[in-house]
Each structure stands twice: as structure tokens, then as C-alpha cells.
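Please, is this right?
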Amino acid sequence: MFFFSDLLKKSTKKGVHINLLTEMPQEDDTLPRLVEEQISPGKSLELKYANELQTHYLIADDKEILIDTSTETDFAESPCLCTNNTSLLALTQKSFADAWRTSMNWTKTGSATTSDKVVVARTR
């Protein structure tokens, strides 16, 4: 989040809606507070938690994807594949839709806790 917060803030100001899916919390969660205070006061950015995610990726405008080649480091620090290949895009969109549907809204977690990694983000 810290690497992409300025870009996310600029995008939400332009009316871009962002769905952000991250791993389930481990410790005190700064992510919802960061989203509300720094990026998106309101409904421009929806945050959910998933139990398990296999990879890190970003889908932009339903046209391009950025896929992290390693989940061992932060998303912004890893080698990535950027493509507009329709087959890879379709697979990634399906994966995201399935993960989003089964994920938990951050307001329903009871306690506010998270890792600081952005795992999956989708803009539309």
C-alpha cells in the first residue's frame, strides 16, 4: 500500500473504483485506517480479506494485468509480468472474481488487523 498509495489516491479522485483484496490480518491493522484517511474517504475503494491467495496481481481497466512472479517479497519490489494478453487476462479476472466473492469485507472482521501487502487489486 505504501508504494501505491499516491497512485490510488489520484485514481479515486478521478472517479476510478478500486476493489482491493489482501491476505487475512495477522496483527494490528493499519490498512483500513490508511484507506479511509489517506486514499479514499467514501466508497471509491472497497477492501476485503481472503483466507488464502496464491499470487499477487493487479488488473487495470479490465484491459491489462500486472502479475508478481514471487509472493516472497513486497509486490512493488518483485519482478512482474505486465500483459494485455486476453487469455491471461480472462484467467486472472476469473480468479479475482472467485476470490472476491468468497472474501470477507474488512468491516466484518471484528478486529482491525492485516499484513501490509497488497495482494490483489482490480480497478474499473
Summary: Residues 86-101 form the longest helix (16 residues). The CA atoms of residues 102 and 121 lie 15 Å apart. The chain has one domain: 5-123. The longest strand covers residues 18-23.
